[in-house]
C-alpha cells in the first residue's frame, strides 16, 4: 500500500579453526530443517477458485518460508561459528515474534493473487475484481475480527492513478484492454500485515514499464538490510528505475520514479509505521533495524513522476497517534460521528478500511459522520494519488522481515 550498508554480526564464544559466512550458516540451518518433521506439509490441494483455508492446507501450522537473501556485503563479513552456535542462531532466527503469522498471511496472498491473475480480464468491473480478491482472502485467512483478515482495502488503481483507489458503492468502471492496473492488497494474521502489489497489463507495449518497476523493486529488496540507510536504498532504486525508457505510440518516454511515493515499515495493525523508504535519492540517513518489517514498493511513471491527491476518496484509517483519552476529549457535535467511530474502532481498530467495508457492516448515511471524524483528525482520509492524465504508472511491492542473520522476502512467489 503506497506511502506519501552493513549488516549485523553474531559473535561466538567458541573459536573453531575455520570461519564461514552467514550465507553458509543459513544454508546449514536450511539443511538441518529439511530433516525435521515439522517442515511445511500440504494436506490438501487448493480449489479453483480458492476456498480452502490455509490452516487446512498446512495442518501442522508451519507455513512456507519466504525467499531468503543475504544482507548487503554479507560475503565480506566473516565470523566463526561451531555447530552449537549454528543451532543457537537458528533459534534466534526463527524466534521472531509473529514470523509464522506473516508466513501464513503471505501464503494466503500468493494463493489469492494466483487466482486473481486468471480472474482479472478486460470487461470486468472494478467492483467485481475487488470483491473477488477480498472474498477469497476472507475465506483463506479465516477472517476472525482482529485475529485474521484483510490488511487494507484492495487497491485497483488504473493508468495515471498510482495508489489509493478502490471502488465505492455504485462505481461502474470497467477494466479495458489498454489499461495499466495496479493490484495492491494486504492480508493480516494477528495484526502482522503482508503488503504486496503487482501490475497487470493486456498489451505488450507496456512491457518495458513493468520490467523497470519490477527491477527497481527487486533492487530495493536486495539493498535493504540491518543498519542500511534509507537514502542509500532510494538512490539505488532511482538509478535502476530511470535507466529504462518506453516507446508508446511512436514517442519515447523516460520512466521516472514517483518521487513523493515511498515504501514504509509495518507494525502490528499499523500499515505505515513511521519510517519511509524513498524511491529516489534523498537525505534521510535513518537506518533500518533488526527485526523490522518493511514494505519495499516502487512506482514508475511515464508522466511527471509526481502525484497529487485527486478524486473521490475511498480509503480511510483511524489515527494510530491519538490516545483514547485524546479522542474522548474531542467534541463531536454530529451524533452519527460518535456511533460511526464506535463501529470503526470495533471492526477495524487502526487497520485501513473503505466505504464498501462500512456498507458491508450495514452502516447507512454515514458520510457526514465520516467527514466529521476526518475533520477532527480522528480518522485520516487517503484520496487517490494521481500523476498527469494520459500517463501510466506501474507498481510492484514486497514485504520483507529483517531477521538477525538473514533477510526474508515473505511475500515472494513464483510470479514476482
From TrEMBL:
One of its GO terms (cellular component) is cytoplasm. Its cofactor is Mn(2+); Fe(2+); Co(2+); Zn(2+). It is found in: Cytoplasm. It holds the Pfam family Peptidase_M24. Belongs to the peptidase M24A family. Methionine aminopeptidase eukaryotic type 2 subfamily. PROSITE patterns: MAP_2 (PS01202). GO terms for molecular function: initiator methionyl aminopeptidase activity; metal ion binding; metalloaminopeptidase activity. Binds 2 divalent metal cations per subunit. Has a high-affinity and a low affinity metal-binding site. The true nature of the physiological cofactor is under debate. The enzyme is active with cobalt, zinc, manganese or divalent iron ions. Most likely, methionine aminopeptidases function as mononuclear Fe(2+)-metalloproteases under physiological conditions, and the catalytically relevant metal-binding site has been assigned to the histidine-containing high-affinity site. Substrate binds at residues 164, 272. It catalyses: Release of N-terminal amino acids, preferentially methionine, from peptides and arylamides. Keywords: Aminopeptidase, Cytoplasm, Hydrolase, Metal-binding, Protease. Cotranslationally removes the N-terminal methionine from nascent proteins. The N-terminal methionine is often cleaved when the second residue in the primary sequence is small and uncharged (Met-Ala-, Cys, Gly, Pro, Ser, Thr, or Val). HAMAP family: MetAP_2_euk (MF_03175). The keyword Hydrolase applies. GO terms for biological process: proteolysis. Its EC number is 3.4.11.18. This is Methionine aminopeptidase 2. It comes from the Eukaryota. A divalent metal cation 1 binds at residues 184, 195, 397.
